[in-house]
TrEMBL record:
Keywords: Coiled coil, Cytoplasm, Exocytosis, Transport. Gene3D superfamilies: Dsl1p vesicle tethering complex, Tip20p subunit, domain D (1.20.58.670), Exocyst complex subunit Sec15 C-terminal domain, N-terminal subdomain (1.10.357.30). Transmembrane segments: none annotated. Residues 400-752 form the Exocyst complex subunit EXOC6/Sec15 C-terminal domain. GO terms for biological process: acceptance of pollen; Golgi to plasma membrane transport; intracellular protein transport; pollen germination; pollen tube growth; vesicle tethering involved in exocytosis. It comes from Hibiscus trionum (Flower of an hour). Pfam families: EXOC6_Sec15_N, Sec15_C. Its main location: cytoplasm. The keyword Cytoplasm applies. The keyword Protein biosynthesis does not apply. Residues 51-220 form the Exocyst complex component EXOC6/Sec15 N-terminal domain. This is Exocyst complex component. Belongs to the SEC15 family.
Length: 789
């Protein structure tokens, strides 16, 4: 019954497919926007409106049908709503009555509530005012504290207070006048603090520069103490090793360790620097302060590196170098403790600049120095400077190289000073054997330089075979070794023994040996002086081993390493050669003196008619002189030197006798003159034999005696005295009896031999009419030699 109206309505409305689509979309709750947009785009809006109207009508019909279907339920619902309305009216009446009563009761409470709310508002305002006042009071109290800190110079606390105000209070200050005032004064306060701190820092810069010299001197003094302590320890160790090697004791080693904090030794205050850097960091300009510090310190360094022209370097070098040392000690501590104020590269740059400048100044100053002592003092102080700054990590090799570059200059000056000292010693020497009267003198003079000829302690007074020149020269050489080692030590090269040995050889050869040779070969030297110098050279040669050992000890070289034969000094060989040259000079002087005594052309009557039975006066003087020479030489010269001098002197006498026959001043001589010379020669030969035996030379030299040195004169006299001189031309006899004679010399001498009436052969001719066979033989010899020549 219900479906018929529906079908009729649908039929009557004439639903189309499009109407159904629209209805379906509306029923499903779909969005009609795209459909409406499409209808507008296609221009079919009327159709769409018609469809919508149709859908509306359709829904109205459905509502109507629905109402008809549920009519009874609707009536019941309306009745129920009317009952509810009655109940609502009663409730409204009750509510109105209750509201009236509530209004009557709550009006008093409402008045009270308004009063309470007003009180709460007042309380809030008061609380806010108190809070604002507290903030202002706290800020003002901080401002008072800041002013107090500023007045007391406590800039860091003042700056921290300003930072506290700026960070925690400035934005919260309720009073704008106070806020503006504080905001305005904060930069002023910071600028004031920076100015005051910078002023204090500048004062510290001036103070630390003036204190740098004391800092450097203290540090260098400490380094000198450490070096001295180390040297004393090494000396004790060396002596202990020597005792151990010699078997005199057991070596006991002990290590003394003394740890000293350099910062505790060097006390200087960096607090102003730390405070200034920290405050500038707090202000936020730490980079600016770093540049300011580096720039000012670099200016101070450049000023310190300038050498004063008004004061000689030898008087100002300690102050100059101590100032530099103090400067870099301060910079080292600043680098280690300031927390980034200085960089290692900046310090290295300053140090490299300093090294270049100091090395240049040292080389220039060393070139102008004319005193080895001054140069050594400067070098020693520089080496201490190097040792001091090395402890702080600075590289001092370039400075020490400047010292090594000047070591030849130093040794030239030292050698020249030693040359003057040695020349003075030799010129002031008495050339007399030293007399030693007590043990201590013997130790200091003989044993100290290994000059003893025996290990047995002699009886006193002891007459040494050398003069005072020997120990004096040894002291000079020992002093040279000490000065040389002092200069070479603590340099770039730790092994400087070879260099020291070279300079020691140079002293002994080019100075000592040269001065001694010049002295012994000079014109004004006497025989006794030359003899003493020759003896002295022997002991100087012996002292060379001591010099080498002493140099090795000072250089830290084991003594046993220089005791090998190949390790000896070259000067030892040179002195040995010079000793032989001194013997020759001595012999030359002796021969010169003998020539004065001999003067045979004046002392011999070459054509005498009588034969003298007495010794010739000149021969007595010759023998007396030779006896004094031998006696003195026996005391101070070794036997081999005595033998050389004796042989040389006697050989010179022999040559002088032969030369006398050959001289042009002797035009003629006879047998009487030959007999006189023969007698003199025999006296001399007897003296030579006696001395050869008494001196002990006969036990050493078995083949060559003193007599053999007179062989040429003896053979010539034998020939002139021979009854058959023509045998000289017999090779067998000549080789046996006349091998030392020269044909030409004999021929010249024979030509001068004249046996006339005033001679011995002439007297014989008066008693004998026959020609002397001896004269015939002599004439035959003359003829044969003339033919031979």
């Amino acid at each position: 019954m219900d479906s018929k109206p529906k079908r009729r309505g649908a039929m009557e409305n004439g639903d189309t497919g499009e109407d159904l689509v629209v209805a379906t979309m509306i029923g499903n709750g779909d969005d009609l926007g795209p459909l409406v947009r499409r209808a507008f785009e296609m221009g079919r809006t009327e159709g769409l409106v018609h469809q919508l109207k149709h859908v509306v009508k359709k829904k109205e019909v459905e509502i109507e049908e629905l109402c008809k279907t549920h009519y009874e339920e609707f009536i019941l619902a309306v009745d129920e709503l009317r009952g509810v309305l009655v109940d609502a009216d009663e409730l409204k009446s009750n509510l109105s009555s209750d509201n009236f009563k509530l209004q009557e009761v709550g009006s008093a409470l409402l008045d009270k509530l308004e009063e309470l709310l007003e009180s709460f508002s007042i309380k809030k305002n008061v609380t806010e005012a108190i809070k604002m006042s507290k903030i202002c009071v706290e800020v003002l109290e901080l401002c008072v504290k800041c002013n107090t800190y500023l007045s007391a110079g406590q800039f860091f606390l003042a700056l921290k207070t300003v930072d506290l105000i700026e960070t925690n209070y400035l934005q919260n200050i309720p009073v704008s006048a106070i806020k503006i005032m504080i905001r305005k004064n904060i930069p002023i306060i910071k600028a004031h603090i920076e100015k005051r701190v910078t002023a204090e820092f500048n004062e510290w810069l001036a103070h630390i520069r003036s204190s740098a010299k004391d800092i450097g001197q203290t540090a260098i003094g400490h380094a000198a103490s450490v070096r001295q302590r180390d040297e004393e320890m090494l000396e004790r160790q060396r002596k202990a090793e020597e005792l151990n090697i010699s078997g005199l004791g057991d070596t006991v080693y002990s290590l003394d360790v003394e740890e000293l904090d350099e910062d505790s030794v060097l006390k200087f205050d960096l607090t102003p620097l730390y405070r200034a850097y920290h405050i500038h960091s707090c202000i936020g300009v730490q980079e600016q302060f770093r540049e300011y510090y580096y720039k000012n310190r670099l200016l101070q360094l450049n000023s310190d590196l300038q050498l004063s022209s008004s004061t000689p370097f030898v008087e100002s070098y300690q102050t100059y170098l101590a100032q530099i040392a103090g400067y870099f000690i301060v910079e080292d501590r600043v680098l280690r403790t300031s927390g980034g104020l200085l960089s290692a590269d900046q310090v290295e740059t300053m140090w490299e600049t300093t090294v270049t400048k100091v090395a240049s100044i040292l080389e220039e100053q060393f070139s102008h120095m004319d005193s080895a002592t001054h140069l050594l003092l400067v070098k020693d102080y520089i080496s201490l400077l190097g040792a001091t700054l090395t402890q702080y990590g600075y590289e001092v090799g370039s400075i020490l190289e400047a010292l090594d570059n000047s070591r030849d200059k130093y040794h030239e000056l030292l050698l020249e000073e030693c040359r003057q000292q040695i020349a003075n010693v030799i010129s002031n020497d008495s050339y007399k054997q030293m007399v030693i009267t007590k043990d201590s003198d013997y130790d200091n003079i003989v044993l100290a330089f290994h000059l003893q000829t025996s290990d047995v302690m002699p009886a006193f007074p002891y007459i040494a075979p050398f003069s005072s020149m020997v120990p004096d020269c040894c002291r000079i050489v020992r002093s040279f070794i000490k000065g040389s080692v002092d200069y070479l030590s603590f340099g770039v090269n730790s092994n400087f023994y070879d260099a020291e040995r070279k300079y020691l050889d140079k002293l002994l050869i080019d100075v000592l040996n040269e001065v001694v040779l010049t002295t012994v070969q000079s014109d004004g030297i006497a025989v006794s002086q030359a003899m003493q110098i020759a003896a002295n050279i022997t002991f100087l040669e012996r002292a060379c081993d001591f010099f080498l050992q002493h140099a090795a000890q000072l250089c830290g070289i084991p003594v046993r390493s220089v005791e090998r034969p190949k390790a000896s000094l070259t000067a030892k060989v040179v002195l040995k050669t010079s000793r032989d040259a001194a013997y020759l000079a001595l012999l030359k002087l002796v021969n010169s003196k003998l020539d004065e005594f001999l003067a045979l052309t004046e002392n011999i009557n070459w054509t005498s008619e009588e034969i003298s039975q007495n010794n010739s006066e000149y021969m007595n003087e010759v023998i007396f002189y030779l006896d004094s020479v031998f006696s003195t030489a026996l005391q101070i010269l070794p036997l081999d030197a005595l033998y050389k001098v004796g042989c040389g002197a006697l050989e010179h006498i022999s040559n002088s006798i032969v030369a006398a026959f050959l001289t042009d001043s002797v035009k003629r001589f006879n047998a009487n003159a030959v007999m006189v010379i023969n007698h003199d020669l025999q006296v001399l030969e007897n003296f030579a034999d006696e001395r050869f035996d008494s001196t002990g030379l006969s036990e050493i030299y078995k083949e060559g005696s003193f007599r053999s040195c007179l062989i040429e004169a003896r053979q010539l006299i034998n020939l002139l005295s021979s009854s058959q001189p023509e045998n000289f031309t017999n090779l067998v006899i000549r080789e046996k009896s006349y091998n030392a004679l020269d044909n030409k010399k004999v021929a010249s001498i024979i030509e001068k031999f004249k046996d006339s009436a005033d001679g011995i052969f002439g007297s014989l001719s008066t008693r004998n009419t026959k020609t002397s066979s001896r004269k015939k033989s002599m004439d035959m010899l003359k003829k044969r030699l003339k033919d031979f020549n």
